[in-house]
Amino acid sequence: MIALAVTTSWYMMLAAALFSIGVAGVLMRRNALVMFMSIELMLNSVNLTFVAVGSDLGLIEGHVAALFVIVVAAAEVTVGLAIIVAVFRKRASADADQLAELRG
Amino acid sequence: MSEVIVFVIFAAVALVGAISMVSARNPVYSAMGLLSTMFSLAVLYVVLDAHLVAAVQVIIYAGAVMTLFLFVIMLIGVDKADAYGRQVPAQRIMTFVVAIGFFAAIALAARSAWITGSGAFGDPEMNGTIEAVSDELFGTWTIVFLSTVMLLTIAAVGTIALAYFGAEVEDEEALL
To answer: Least packed by Cβ within 10 Å: which of A6, A23, A103, B99?
Structure first.
């Protein structure tokens, strides 16, 4: 029986994988809502690294930083979803590729 | 050993949820995938002794944020199934290359930090209870905490402004 133990590196690897999936979602999807969810996923994975390293080093600051990230994400969600709804009311579409008025 | 089992199960659920979020065509399924990812991350926070962060994760993320997402999906409608990107040539392949390269870069950076990294220099008995976190939050980080109050107020005001003036612009266009 091998003595397996969950180390911080396991959590870092999980967070890296989740972050990469979030990057792929932002790059691949054209629906603004799903892109926004991918950004939330990236914020969540960063939270996981904060908490894992904080617990590993015995520092409560990691948990505090994760709480601040959650607050900023909540503020970001309200504004971002309001922007998506406002764009949808004008354009009847949540497709990010159709918003190209600023293209030179 | 039980920690390993819990980690493997919930890490797998988190990864499957994340992948299904990115790949689902229906935004509601995307929201459900993200919800399962957030719940399994909350379980991992409990394993890491971050009890307050786990509770906040469930209440704020899985509760409030996902409800907001579902409300907006309800407003916008799910019948407009979007295609995957077709504007840039070979966008999907490029996406996979970038994502895998990103993962490799993060993994490499994390690995070098494990080799040279420091050991535990804080309190090894640290436990993320409400008491421990709030001692730090309202002691060292009071100003930052108060500025998040301002941030949330500004975000709420901005959201109201967007909803209110967005409606006016729409009415003007209807008149023209």
So the answer is: A103
Cβ atoms A10, A19 nearer than 8 A: no
Using CA coordinates, name the residue in chain B closest to A89: B170
Beta bridge partners of A31: A95
Nearest 5°: the CA angle A75, A76, A79 is 90
Upper half-sphere CA count for residue A18 (Cβ side, 13 Å): 34
pLDDT score for B169 = 53
CATH of A8-97 among 1.10.10.10, 2.60.40.1930, 1.10.287.3510, 2.60.40.10: 1.10.287.3510
Nearest-by-Cβ selection for A89 from B103, B158, B166: B166
pTM comes to: 0.87
Evaluate whether B76 touches A83 at the Cβ level (below 8 Å): no
Read off the DSSP letter of residue B24: -
User: What is the four-CA torsion angle of A40, B141, B143, A69, rounded to 10 degrees?
Assistant: 0
Question: Looking at A1-5, B1-5, B130-134, which range is the least confident one?
Answer: A1-5
CB–CB of B102 and A94 under 8 A? no
Contact A89 B170 (CB under 8 A): yes
